[in-house]
TrEMBL record:
Keywords on record: Transferase
Record protein name field: Acetyltransferase (GNAT) family protein
InterPro entries: Acyl_CoA_acyltransferase, GNAT_dom
Gene Ontology MF term list: acyltransferase activity, transferring groups other than amino-acyl groups
Lineage: Bacteria, Pseudomonadati, Pseudomonadota, Alphaproteobacteria, Hyphomicrobiales
Length: 145
């Protein structure tokens, strides 16, 4: 079997879904946010979010939105450190016969570039893959799909 010249490891993934209606096209929702358990707290989520914000800003998005479990205090604190604020709560999921709220969070993006001519929902994502740890990657390890 030939030797593998490099090893790719998936550390995390983050997606972005732009609103469809023209009056809301300046808004996008963070979706599919995931960081491997062993990589949490090591900068992977921040690297992904920074790349996602840069991508959004470069495509005319002024506001990012997300929903996070009301019981996920570590995630809520992370998003607050990154400039998101709570915009409200909604009924989320049922777990063991009890309802867990979703916390709706919003972040405005400054210094946006106007985007014209988009059609429909645009979905993009970033994946971190490398033989290096996320804090060693820099932006070169981030790939937009």
């Amino acid at each position: 079997m030939p030797a593998v010249p490099w090893l790719q490891i998936l550390f995390g993934i983050m997606g972005l879904s732009r609103q469809r209606a023209s009056k809301m096209a300046h808004r996008a929702m963070l979706i599919i946010v995931f960081v491997c358990r062993g990589e949490r707290g090591g900068g992977c989520a921040k690297s992904q979010l920074d790349a996602t914000v840069d991508y959004a800003r470069g495509n005319g998005i002024r506001q990012l939105e997300l929903a996070v479990s009301g019981e996920s205090m570590a995630a809520i604190r992370f998003y607050e450190r990154e400039g998101f604020h709570e915009a409200g709560r909604t009924g989320g999921i049922m777990h063991d016969s009890r309802e867990i709220d979703d916390v709706m969070m919003v972040r405005r993006i400054e210094d946006y570039k106007t985007s014209r001519g988009h059609r429909g929902t645009q979905i993009a994502g970033t994946v971190i893959r490398s033989g290096k740890r996320p804090d060693e990657l820099g932006s070169s390890g981030l790939q937009w799909l």
